[in-house]
Amino acid sequence: MKWRDAAIGAGVAVIVAAGGAGWYMVQHRGDLPAGLARANGRLELARIDVAVKYPGRITELDFHEGDVVASGQVLAREDDTTARAQLDAARARLRAAQADVARAGAERDARLSALHLSQLDLDHARTMFHQHLVSDMELSQHQTSLDTATSAADAAGRAVDAAQAVADAAQAQVTEAAAADDDMTIRAPVAGRIEYRIVEKGAVLPGGGRVASLLDPTDMYLTIFFPSQQAGRLRVGDQARIALDALHQQVIPATISFISPEAQFTPKYVETTTERDKLVYRVKLRVSPETARHYGDVLKSGMTGDGYVRIDPSARWPATLDVADAPQ
């Protein structure tokens, strides 16, 4: 029994020591060296509204809240009866226009052949004229025939150009109609997780109506607030650190991606280390996509934690905020 009691005592001692070490890390992180500042905030993921481009009725929904979707994955479809009919009509107009181009081309070729023959006739008539075998009137008639054939060939060429312009316009209409028909299929703009399924099958939406909201797990940031004397010393692109409560204060590397140009009243949920400041500046600490992918589903929107910044560029990060082994 003595050895069992000794083992239990040793285990308790290890747990107490580990807990004490964790408490020490958290508490002593509050004793920041000069040149550093801290503020609490919430982790946010970029939210993307997935919406329809054209008004219509939803006929299919292929997702649920919480689903992980790939970029380009089909999420929903609208009734495309009208769009499909418009596409078919545009294709029919294109076929007709292409047939007109072919007919105009054949007519042009015939006129060019006639022009060539008229030129040969005129050349022959000139030779005979020099040999006094034809009169001036006959030579003039051949010249008139050539001029007429030239005008006809030119007109046929312009007809081909006009027909081709109509065909090009018809092709553009087909492209536009095909794009509109394709837009009746709603796809995920980026890879991410479905946050909300906003509509159900059968709903009729206006243009721009939302189908779902999507969270981009590679675009995340912690929003924090600093008073002017600290915010004024920060720069976009500076290094930062994030320590989330749910991850037992594990340190995540970040950079300052945004500093609000305007002061605002301190949000109610924000706790300050001093007396509540009336006016503060919003600052975003962005986690790089590589770091976000490294943590995967561990990082979630709404997680609370602390953000650390250097208000003195020469200040060194303490060991408790070391991220040497974390992906940058």
UniProtKB/TrEMBL annotation:
UniProt entry tagged with the keyword Secreted: no
Protein origin, superkingdom: Bacteria
Gene3D superfamilies recorded: 2.40.30.170, 2.40.50.100
Boundaries of every Multidrug resistance protein MdtA-like barrel-sandwich hybrid domain copy: 49-205
Coiled-coil region list: none
Keyword list, A-Z: Membrane, Transmembrane, Transmembrane helix
Protein name, as recorded: HlyD family secretion protein
GO cellular component: plasma membrane
Pfam families cross-referenced by the UniProt entry: BSH_RND
Transmembrane regions: 6-26
InterPro entries for this protein: MdtA-like_BSH
